[in-house]
Amino acid sequence: MTTTAYPRQQRTGPARVLPILGWRRGYDRHVLRHDLIAGLTVAVMLVPQSMAYAALAGMPPVTGLYAAVVPVLVYALLGTSGSLAVGPVAITALMTATALAPLADGDPGRYAALAGLLALLVGAIQVLMGVLRLGALVNFLSHSVLSGFTSAAAIVIAVSQVKDLLGLRADRAENLPGIVGSLWQAAPTVHPLTVAVGAASIAGLLLLRRYLPKLPGALLVVAAVTIASAALAFGARGVPILAEVPSGLPTPDLPSIALADLRALLPAAVAIALVAYMEGIAVAKSLAARSRQQVEPNAELVAVGAANLAAGAFHAFPVAGGFSRSAVNFSAGARTPVASLVTAAVVAATALLLTPAFHHLPKAVLAAIVVVAVLGLVDWREARSAWRVRRTDGLTLGLTFLVTLVAGVEPGLAVGVAFSLAVFLRRSARPHTAELGRVPGTATFRNLARYQGLVTDPRVAVLRFDGPLYFANAQYLADQLLTLTQSRPELRAVVLDASAISDADTDGAHALAQTRQRLAGRETALHLATVRGPVRDLLTRAGLWSVMRDAGQLHPEVADAVDTVTGSPAVDAERPKRLPQEVL
Question: Which helix (H) or strand (E) holds 544?
Fold first, then answer.
């Protein structure tokens, strides 16, 4: 792997407005050949996949092709990743269906209009976040939340396809209990030939993936089953087929916008915007690291947001960067977004010329493609790892997983985010504290709970506070210090090791000042050691720094503070030299 094989994007001049121009430097026939091969490879994979995901979203299959043309072109022009493949993905398709089904009331025209409006909302949110440089907001979607949500959504997606795999006339539902109940009620309508088609399709996809992974398995299965369907008249024998698939590409047409629809769709749009961006940026960064390219998160928000705006304007539904297609794009040799231009061109040609070939395609095949595609999204290994590493992360993952299964994708995501934020707030409100002792013969202090043989003095206690000192935990620190002095009447000083206090606010400074006064009333002095610059600056503005400095209660190191209190340095040679007052 060399830097010449993977051109680096230049982001100067016109490339700031149109990022694709930044790939011109170093672009030659060798790079073009790789992009052409990758673009064709992804297109072959994307055509059947996009139709399957459109059906999952509750849209006509041809709209999946629409979502894989103009949005892909827009991302190719504006994106900063050379390998990310944008288009319909399973998770956002499911979230789209969940959001639209209760609002459309079974009206296909209204459903399509709402899908376009949802894509516009998602795009507007993402572009706004990118312009305001709010890409860091997605960090509130922790890995545990995303893993639990994705695994549960994958199960819901797979179970939702059972209806088409078995040929059942079942009602649509939005969560696992509802789907299972609907399937149970429709069980008498199972169609044996459809079951055979679905089973054969899944078997073919899995066998091709296992033994011939380099071949376009989905396209081969679609072609084979469609030919068999036409030859054996599956449609006439009761197997649901696509039948009429419109040819051509749509013209831009903005959906009608009603304030009530905007309000109803906004929560789903925010959720889809975050999940779609999180999914895309994760794979984009991973591939960029392997190709030694760079991805700019806020520019990616604008690019994928613009792609969703295009999807809304061209009769499609929300899109995102997909894991599997991007991996295929990269492994097939994609070097720049030109590969996506090739993909879009091939899909457009398919929509213009080849849609009649899908007339006899059974819907069970599309369901099989979806099921096989989402099998790998259920990550039990990550669940075990999260529980083993940190129980709260495991609880977050498990809670997100269960709520998504039982209540649906949006409640699951909301509960997961809320719970992870609650865990974070609780953790930051009660940071880890440790009482320290001196390593014999040194000026080094360590945690008494973790090390044996440390030296302590009954006249002085050393406490380390591991976290920022702010309004949520200031009282907690004060309580810790006061409890310590109450339990040890012989104490004459408490040394606060502030090396792990990275920041503080007014409440933190106020708590320190009050605690210092209360300890003084018990004839115990509060000393600060190893105070960081930002904390020192705040304490200076609060007026506490000068007061403690004049009282001799500020020290550059913990050993210096302890030796000052006890008046008997343990190791003179290793005692830290006193720093000038202006540094203190």
Answer: helix 544-550
